[in-house]
Design goal:
The complex is a heterodimer of chains A (326) and B (485). Chain A has 326 residues and is an all-alpha fold. Chain A is built from 11 helices and no strands. Chain B has one domain. Classes of the chains: A mainly alpha (326), B mainly alpha (485).
Amino acid sequence: MTVIAFSDVDVLDMLVVAAVAVTAILAIAIPRRVGATIAFLVFGLLLALLWARVAAPDVAIAEAALGGGVAGALLVDALHRRQPAQPNRDRRRAVAITAVGAALGAVTFAALATVLSRLTAEPADLGPLALEAVERSGVSHPITAVLLNFRNLDTLLEIAVVVFAAVGAAALSRDRIRTVTDPGPVRRVIAVIIVPALVLLAAWLLVAGTSEPGGAFQAGAVLGAALIIAHLCGVRPARAAGGRALVLVVAGLLAFILLGGIGLAATGTWLALDLSWAFAAILAIETLLTVSIGVALAMLFLAAGSRDDAAAADRAADAPALGGAP
Amino acid sequence: MSAAALVLVPVFLPLAVGALSAVLPRRAAATLTVIAAVATLMVAVLLGIAVLDAGPVRLEVAGWAPPVGILLAADGLSVVMIGLSAIAVLAATLVAAADDHFAGGHAFWPLVGAAAAAVNGVFVARDVFTAFVLLELLTIASVALVALGGTRSAAAALRYLFVAVTGSLFFLLAVALTYGHTGTVDLARAAERADDTVIVGAIIALTVVGMAAKTALFPLHSWLPVAHPAAPAAVSALLSALVIKASIVILWRIVEYFGPLTDLAAPLATAVGVAGAAAVLWGGVLALRRDRLKSIIAYSTVAQVGYMVLLVPLVFTASDPQVAWIGGILITLAHGVAKVAMFLAAGALATAAGTSRLDGLEGTISRMPWTVAAIGLAGVSLAGLPPTLGFVGKWMLVQASLDAGAWWWLALLLGGGLLTFAYTARMLRATFNPPGDFSGARELTRPARTVAIVPLALAALSVVLGLIPWLLIEVLSAAPMGGGA
């Protein structure tokens, strides 16, 4: 793994860092939601670029897939839904809040800058230690070794976060999720071209993850985006089926916990992987997790988008009838 | 199974049951959740025996030792807190299984599993990053649980989400600083390697702010009295008794490991103590001024959080910090047990009377004397009067204050107790019959029998534990806090 020394930081990096800061401020400062959303999406892409520049391609792919995929879809979907809250008309109050916020921000920034300047620039010795251990992990890509072997408890818990977020969101969107029945020719063509390509990309990210950047989170994010597009284009299997989708979502988590139990039974330690079957176990669990994550992310989108869609459809259906009434 | 393997059971068992509950019918989900809570309680007992026997139980997950892998460890604090979590979940789920109104919907079952797994994980975590992920799981589950209170609770849940996520971000900054400074996220190794007073002070300060937001420590408390009452009764009970304890324990752990390393810890600890003192008074006074049961109990939580952080300044000044640690832990346990009893009893009264307003509860004491008694007993434990667990905890904190020569904490401990007594009395008074009416003829919707028994059983538990506190004190002293794990 390459260590970035300060001399490696060139003008391009500085420009990207500055652009990240500017888009972040714009995303907060722009009062109109369309502008703020665009700024946020650009922010995500620039951040992905920055991750790639600091030699963290795995994080870059995840950021691009999540920020540009599911998060982007959710934000854009929210844009033309609901009236935004009326801006606070009390100007003096708004000015006071901004002033206090800016002052607190400045103090925090100064304090953090002081603390950060005291950090030594030496890289931690944990990196080399982890690299040494990779050959005993069953896979050759160090990030995958960390995520699914050394610190697989964290990964399991992160999967649980996604799973239970989907469970909660599904429970809170009380209305039926609207199915797209007549997508029209354009959307049909989009579905035929994009969905298979995304599914293929997800599969590649998954398999490549054992030896190169990629893995379950990235593949799952891409799969989630594919499912959302498929749903919006009326592809039949992607039509929401709450109960069955939940089974897919929890299956990955349950399989991971089961793997932990198998480790306990086989080696006496939770989540331990024996080198002889570590590779197979990691690939199998990553495949299940990809499906779980993909379906969970798609469910989050559908849960957020469901209610107003249905209401809008009802209004559209009612409008001519009302208009025609005497 | 060796003792070490037991450490992950309180995490994986509720997590697996929670995941299953998402796709199982209600009855099966409820049965499994109750069984998991009982099993967790048994594991807590087994772990307690192991701690008494040979000190902290350590588990290197997946067979990888730190710094490459993750260390989990159960000491006395972990054991008693896991016990509290099992009891709280058991009580809340028994009531929710008996009466669906207390649950708020099917998602209650999976989300309770996730929340229980997350808090138990925090209690055994010795790795700051793992602790962060567990806090995220807890936040997601708790916010969704609040939102189960129906459309009216949506705004409260959203506000809670914003505060909780901001708190997590502060802690994430602390985690990043820990890694940046020491090159490890393992607590013990990080404490060994940390040598910069300012950076360690910043880690403590960031944790204090983040956890204060998540625990609703004054002045970051204003989300709690909105969020906790908005949830269904069983959820309110779990949120007050259990969920805020996770962030408290993280704060304690950071103080335990990093506190001795920096001169900045003492002023920070004093600041925490002052915030705690303000919380005790402010929460107590506002609880006196509310006119809904759940709202009073929620403000009572704001006040009690003040007591839970009071050990932070005391462990720096008392000559025997163990007394302050154990006193603070016991008062936190007592709060958990009493709050489950109080919220569940309040839920039962509100269901029966059809309102949670104090002026609508008139006459309920004739029909539901045991439920009212549960509120009274729980209030006695919260106020720290004998013979309850709350008294034992408060007594030890009083000793630690005297030991540290800090008489002002003494005044606070006693004054806060008076306030607690006053708002409990106000709740009891509201259930009395109208003057001159001895018939007790008021018609009420009788709740299920379980709903009446469970709060009383918990209130009784406060007394039982108050009479035999040596059991808990033994376990807590077996592995002294700050002794490393």
